[in-house]
Design brief:
One of its GO terms (cellular component) is plasma membrane. The protein is mainly alpha-helical and 241 residues long. It has 10 helices and no strands. It is globular, with a radius of gyration of 16 Å.
């Protein structure tokens, strides 16, 4: 890659880490389409490693606000969801799966805009965790289902709970990729070079979080979902052109 391409990725990673640390998700939604346009071979392990770094930092920072019980039920669905997502990637086209993700996210946004807010009960958490596992494995965008079910959490609780969920989920996904032999040295080098951008994004989020009321945080979460869908559509259209 050229210096310009490294700079573009670093800028996107900075913004994505800031978004992830402020809303609890968004790293993959913002960064994956851009990285895929520059060098698809870097995905998904590079981004998963960087997401793991930012979720660890946020989880530690917001540890007193974690919903451990809710996280546990969501992770119960995440594991089989990740396995199903792996199978779907092997059995179906990635483009087809990505269009399904866009349809699901847009439908969720429309329902949320009409006031639909599923309560974070056991069954809903397991279902959301499974959906996140499927979507995250197939397209690196697994945040929207969890944002929908946890949308009424306050700032620290939302960030901490989402980060704890994705911290464990990222570790599971990374272990699966490592076992499958799909983690390359090229991916590890990029993650190492981009680590400072992640830390900078996290530090920037600490200032931004002071101005995020519950209403603004919900708007940020849904806005991130919408932006992720738009970027994914752009990636799919350019990829098929």
């Amino acid at each position: 890659m050229t210096v310009t391409e490294y700079a573009i990725i670093a800028g996107v990673i900075f913004l994505a880490a800031c978004l992830q640390a402020s809303s609890g998700f968004g790293m993959g939604m913002l960064a994956a389409p851009v990285i895929a346009l520059i060098d698809p071979a870097l995905l998904p392990a590079s981004l998963i490693l960087l997401a793991l770094l930012v979720t660890v930092m946020v989880t530690v920072t917001e540890r007193q606000s974690l919903d451990l019980r809710g996280t546990g039920w969501a992770l119960l669905g995440r594991v089989p969801g990740s396995l199903l997502g792996t199978w779907l990637v092997a059995a179906s086209s990635r483009e087809g799966l990505a269009w399904v993700v866009v349809a699901v996210v847009v439908t969720g946004l429309v329902l949320a805009g009409r006031g639909w807010a599923p309560r974070p009960r056991r069954a809903n958490l397991v279902a959301a965790g499974a959906a996140s596992g499927i979507m995250g494995t197939a397209t690196s965008i697994g945040g929207p289902p969890m944002a929908l079910v946890w949308q009424n959490h306050d700032g620290p609780r939302l960030r901490g709970t989402m980060s704890a969920f994705f911290m464990v989920g990222s570790a599971i996904s990374l272990a699966m990729l490592w076992a499958a032999g799909t983690v390359t040295g090229h991916m590890l080098v990029l993650a190492l070079w981009m680590a400072p951008a992640v830390v900078a994004g996290y530090l920037a989020s600490r200032r931004i979080n002071r101005y995020l009321s519950a209403v603004r945080l919900k708007a940020l979460a849904f806005g991130a979902s919408a932006l992720g869908s738009v970027l994914l559509v752009i990636q799919l259209v350019l990829g098929s052109a």
